[in-house]
Structures are given as structure tokens and as C-alpha cells.
Amino acid sequence: MKTVVIFIFACVFASPLSVAKLQLDIEQNNARVHIERTAANKVKSSKQAAKMVKQRYGGKVLSVKGMKDKSGYRVKLLKKDGHIISVYVNAKTGKIQG
User: Fold this and answer.
1) Distance CA 17, CA 7 (A)
2) Less Cβ crowding at N or C end of the chain, within 10 Å?
3) Cα 45–Cα 95–Cα 51 angle in degrees, nearest 5
4) The pTM is what?
């Protein structure tokens, strides 16, 4: 009987702490997995690169070319003011240069 009472007591008082710790562990693991996935390859397609450039500069995407070594994408864009720009999107970091 003592064992049952101790078990129930432990379950009632330890559960909130255990659940909170478990949730924290899960959140930390999810964050770690997210960082590993995004670090591996942040920009996965020419369509994604085009969308990123269009969001930053506006205008119309004229062309997107992937680099032969798969390091990134060259995006040519017609801006609203009539200027044509060409920028490079790094596939690993997602940085836009140019």
C-alpha cells in the first residue's frame, strides 16, 4: 500500500516538471534539426531563388540559371523603374549578392 501511495504522490507532483522538461527537450531538438537542415541547403530550387529576389527588389524575373557546381543561382530581374539587374543567390546561405 505504501508503494502505491508513493507512486501516486510521485506521479502527481513530478508530472508537471517532467512534462515541462520533455517539452523543452523536444523544442531544443526541433531547433537543432531546423538549423542543420537550413545550413545544409537553404535555397533548394531556382523557383525559390527567383521568389527571394523578387521579394527583395520587386519587378519581374526574366531568367534564373543554376550554377554548374550547384553553389547558387544567377537571377536576372526587370525592376519597376525599367532597370535590369542580375544578382547571385548563394544556395547554402541564402544571401543575395549583386
Assistant:
1) 16
2) N
3) 45
4) 0.58
pLDDT in tens, 44-83: 999 999 999 999 999 999 999 999 998 999 999 999 999 9
> CA Rg, the chain, in Å?
25
Distance between alpha carbon 95 and the CA centroid of its chain, in Å? 13
Residue 85 has pLDDT above 80, yes or no: yes
Report residue 90 as a C-alpha cell. 548563394
Residue partners of 61: CB distance under 8 A and separation at least 6 = 50, 53, 54, 75, 76, 77
- What's the CA gap between 69 and 95, in Å, rounded? 17
